Every structure is written in C-alpha cells, then in structure tokens.
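Ops channel
N.P.: pipeline sanity check, posting one input/output pair.
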C-alpha cells in the first residue's frame, strides 16, 4: 500500500484522526544514533590496519543521543547535551580525521497541521534559521511487524532520487550527481502521533526506528504525558531566516570556497572527497 496520490489530503485526514485519538497526548522519545561508513584512502599513504583503526574510532564517536518532544501536532528534535558531543576525531600513523556533526543545541521544529518546519543550521561559522514547507514522503506500508521495546512496530519504506554535488582534490569544479535515498522506518500505532526523529514524519504512529544511508536512529525510552516535567515545545530563533533552497545555495557557496582552498592535482598530498545534497 503506497501513500502517493492525494498524499496531502490523506495526510491531513491521518493527522486529524491521530489528533482525535491522541488528544492531549504529549511525550518525549529518546533515540540513539549509530553510523556505518567506509573510510578509504590511498594505501601508499595509510596501511589497511591504520584505516580500520580510524574507522573504528570514528564509528564510536559518531554515536549520538537525541530527544524528540511532541504534542499531537508539534514536535522538537534536539541532541541531548553530553560531554562527548564535539566533533568526531580519530588519528593513526600521523593522520588525523575530524568530522564535525554540528552544534548540540540546534533545534528542529515541525508543525504537522501547518506542514511547516523551522531549523537552526550553520555554515562556516554563520548561523541560519531555515523556515519552509515540510516535504511529505511517499511511504509504502509493508505489513511487516517487529517488537521495539514494549511496542509493536510496523514497517514502512520509501525511496527517492535527489540531486547532490561532489568535489574531490584534483577536480576543477563541482560535479552534479544523482543519489538514491532509501529509508526504512518502524512506527507504532500504539502511540497515535505522526511524528518521528529528524525530518521523518507522516506515518499513523510514532516512528521508533529509522535506517537511512548507513545511519540508524532507534528509540531507547519513551515518556508519555510526563507530569514532573511537562512537555514544552519551543520554536528556534537563532540565525538569519532563509528558505530551504536559499540555504542549499549557501551550502554550495561554502563548498566552492573549500574547493578553491584545497584544489590541487591528483597525487599531491592527502586526497579527500566532500559531498552535499538533500
């Protein structure tokens, strides 16, 4: 079963149904992220065991914890503050790799009823506030079920092709490429709100797990209608206000600046590839 044609109308009906079912329902869902990625470099510059060591260090450090706070129609997504929340760093044999995953205190706000989102981001030290319409996914419900914690979850998937840009040392300009995004989600109708982690939403139940491009977000704990510390939804305020497309253009300009800085010929120094997309 695919949520495709007249998706917006169907989603609004689903939201109305979920809202009536979950009237007054608030909560917090705590997630943990893990990433699997392949680290490659010229074998003349780094031995396989050194590459494996760096990959293991980065994988561990790129684990993060997040909290999704929600009401029937609004949600906040934010990284949980921790001492290990800085850039992921790894070193071996004189080589050091740094992966900056962004500030811990960025906030993502989603409003399912209005179909809008607001998100704090930064590019090269400058802060921006993205405000735009949500992009509904064409979810396919597979009928498969799974147990996640105390909840029975159902499986949903979707895929789409997005435009990306790639730059490697030795290139004189960015290369436009097509990427296929494939997402698997597990949601539970036991919690009838259409929310989920990060930018995922629109299923008839809270999304407990998402697998996307080698990254997994899985719910570890849920608090429903907490009385000791009631759920408060906040809207991000920091940064220059831009649309999604304006922010993408700013990202591309930052990428061009990096390209100009590190542009070189193949074989000269350490090589790398950077990529941006949807």
């Amino acid at each position: 079963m695919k949520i495709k044609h007249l998706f917006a109308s169907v989603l609004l009906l689903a939201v109305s149904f979920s809202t009536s079912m979950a009237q007054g329902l608030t909560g917090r869902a705590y997630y943990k992220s893990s990433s699997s990625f392949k680290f490659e470099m010229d074998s003349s510059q780094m031995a396989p065991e050194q590459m494996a060591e760096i990959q293991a260090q980065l994988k561990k450090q790129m684990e993060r914890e997040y909290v999704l706070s929600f009401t029937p129609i609004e949600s906040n997504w934010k990284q949980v503050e921790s001492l290990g929340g800085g850039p992921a760093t790894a070193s071996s044999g004189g080589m050091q790799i740094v992966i900056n995953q962004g500030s811990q205190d960025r906030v993502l706000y989603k409003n399912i009823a209005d179909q809008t989102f607001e998100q704090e981001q930064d590019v090269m030290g400058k802060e921006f506030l993205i405000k735009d319409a949500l992009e509904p996914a064409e979810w396919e419900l597979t009928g498969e079920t799974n147990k996640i914690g105390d909840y029975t979850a159902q499986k949903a998937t979707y895929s789409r092709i997005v435009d990306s840009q790639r730059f490697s040392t030795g290139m004189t300009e960015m290369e436009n490429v097509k990427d296929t995004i494939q997402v698997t989600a597990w949601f539970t109708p036991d919690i009838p709100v259409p929310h989920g982690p990060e930018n995922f939403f629109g299923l008839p139940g809270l999304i407990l797990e998402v697998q996307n491009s080698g990254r997994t977000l899985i719910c570890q704990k849920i608090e429903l209608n907490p009385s000791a510390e009631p759920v408060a939804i906040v809207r991000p305020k920091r940064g220059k206000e831009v649309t999604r497309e304006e922010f993408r253009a700013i990202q591309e300009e930052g990428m061009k600046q990096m390209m100009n800085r590190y542009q070189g010929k193949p074989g000269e120094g350490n090589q790398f590839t950077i990529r941006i997309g949807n």
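N.P.: looks fine end to end. The CA atoms of residues 123 and 251 lie 7 Å apart.
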